[in-house]
């Protein structure tokens, strides 16, 4: 076997492989014998089919399978042993492969390789990044409490006699001409502004009529109202009647013990002052996480701005096209290439940092990170439930990772998050930083400027 690497550019190479009979024939002979022992063919005793017969029937297929397996291991071993900075997957020259005469004894194959250019990472030499201390004051606290009071899970439900804007109306929707009838609910937020007045001031047993296609915000609202699929709801037309059976209103809860217990958990705060102090701590914690997210983003951008890596653009675009099996055009791939290249460069830099610092990810760390994800999904409920929620969260996390369909995907996702967290901690200790105290409005301006 001959293996030769030819670099055509600093980031492109050809890997040429020549196979001779001695490279693949021993494996083929072994496979032929195994086929012979397993085959049942008329005229021969079971397991006694001559290898010459097997060769005649299946020889070409066996040859191609064994050579493909040999090529795969040869390419992988060469890349690993020579520590080639390969990006994407090797691409075999399909045209040359299609022209191969499989009756020959020697075969030549050629692979395109994409390579990342050499680069060094010296974190101590990178410019300093800003670490923001975001000061949340009474304004943010009041806004947070007001938002919580308007959330449906904390609202107090009442059933008034007369409807007002914002109510939920329950009743029967009918159309006499089509004999359509269903029990349903109409939320005010789904009614167009110009039609809301006719739904105000109604009482139980009131009947309101309206054009079903003109009155509501969109097709989804009509589908939800009627209980039909979008395409079926779109076929409805004309005037419908709605007879009110109940009116439900969500009122803001009072600032009392029941509300404090719902938000923070039973007995966590017994006065409004204590409640506000604890909510303020939550607000500050949220902004501290926002600050960390911005710091993480700035650290990653510092790596990209100061570490030069060249990538084989044409090769990677071709590889992406083949990987996606024609789902995207080359024009679409080129439009998104810069975003892909940025992600790939960042991954290469992080991997080198991880190697330099011997970063390892343990299974227990993956479980713990999954628990954090679950806890974040529960939000304030996790805090309100207290210690009794811990076991539930752990059970859900383990079930996520053990899921037959998505378990491996979630495991890979959590592995990447733990890996990134560890690399980011290294960046925070080795890249210089400068602290800046700002208020919430200044923070929003900074974040807004980044998204523009």
Explain how this protein is built:
The longest helix has 35 residues, at 272-306. α13 crosses α15 (388-402). The protein folds into 3 domains: 2-115, Trigger factor ribosome-binding domain (Alpha-Beta Plaits, 2-Layer Sandwich); 123-135 and 287-451, Trigger factor, domain 2 (Orthogonal Bundle), CATH 1.10.3120; 156-251, Roll (Chitinase A, domain 3), CATH 3.10.50. A hairpin with a 2-residue loop joins β1 (2-9) and β2. The chain has helices at 21-38, 51-81, 94-98, 138-150, 212-215, 219-226, 230-233, 257-264, 272-306, 313-323, 330-335, 337-356, 363-378, 380-385, 388-402, 407-430, 440-451, and strands at residues 2-9, 12-19, 86-92, 107-115, 129-135, 156-158, 168-175, 180-187, 207-211, 239-251, 433-439. It contains 17 helices and 11 strands. Strands 6, 7, 8, 9 and 10 form a 5-stranded antiparallel beta sheet that branches. Strands 1-2-4-3 form a 4-stranded antiparallel beta sheet, with helices on both faces. The two termini are 55 Å apart. The protein has 452 residues and is of the alpha+beta class.
């Amino acid at each position: 076997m001959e293996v030769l690497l030819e670099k055509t550019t600093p980031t492109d190479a050809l890997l040429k492989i020549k196979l001779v009979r001695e490279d693949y024939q021993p494996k083929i002979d072994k496979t032929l014998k195994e086929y012979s022992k397993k085959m049942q063919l008329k005229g021969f005793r079971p397991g006694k089919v001559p290898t010459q017969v097997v060769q005649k029937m299946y020889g070409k297929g066996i040859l191609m399978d064994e050579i493909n397996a040999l090529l795969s291991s040869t390419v992988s071993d060469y890349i690993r042993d020579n520590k080639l900075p390969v990006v994407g997957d090797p691409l075999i020259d399909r045209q040359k492969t299609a022209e191969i005469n499989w009756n020959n004894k020697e075969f030549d194959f050629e692979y395109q390789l994409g390579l990342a250019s050499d680069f060094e990472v010296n974190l101590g030499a990178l410019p300093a990044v800003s670490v923001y201390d975001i000061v949340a004051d009474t304004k943010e606290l009041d806004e947070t409490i007001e938002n919580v009071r308007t959330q449906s899970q904390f609202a107090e439900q009442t059933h008034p006699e007369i409807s007002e804007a914002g109510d939920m109306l329950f009743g029967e929707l009918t159309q006499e001409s089509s004999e359509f009838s269903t029990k349903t609910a109409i939320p005010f937020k789904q009614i167009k502004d110009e039609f809301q007045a006719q739904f105000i001031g109604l009482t139980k047993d009131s009947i309101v009529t309206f054009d079903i296609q003109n009155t509501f915000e969109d097709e989804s609202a009509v589908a939800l109202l009627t209980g039909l699929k979008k395409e079926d709801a779109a076929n409805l037309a004309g005037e419908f009647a709605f007879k009110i059976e109940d009116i439900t209103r969500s009122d803001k809860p009072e600032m009392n013990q029941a509300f404090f217990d719902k938000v923070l958990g039973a007995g966590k705060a017994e006065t409004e002052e204590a409640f506000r102090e604890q909510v303020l701590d939550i607000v500050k914690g949220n902004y501290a996480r926002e600050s960390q997210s911005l710091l993480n983003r700035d650290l990653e951008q510092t790596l990209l701005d100061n570490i030069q890596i060249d990538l084989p653009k044409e090769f990677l675009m071709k590889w992406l096209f083949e990987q996606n099996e024609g789902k995207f055009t080359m024009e679409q791939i080129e439009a998104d290439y810069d975003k892909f290249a940025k992600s790939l460069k960042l991954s290469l830099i992080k991997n080198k940092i991880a190697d330099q610092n011997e970063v390892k990810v343990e299974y227990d760390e993956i479980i713990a990170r999954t628990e954090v994800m679950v806890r974040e999904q529960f939000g304030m409920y996790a805090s309100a439930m207290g210690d009794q929620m811990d076991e539930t969260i752990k059970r859900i996390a383990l079930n996520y990772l053990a899921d037959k369909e998505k378990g491996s995907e979630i495991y890979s996702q959590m592995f990447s998050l733990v890996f990134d967290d560890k690399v980011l901690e290294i960046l925070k200790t080795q890249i210089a930083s400068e602290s800046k105290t700002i208020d919430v409005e200044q923070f929003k301006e900074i974040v807004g400027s980044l998204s523009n």
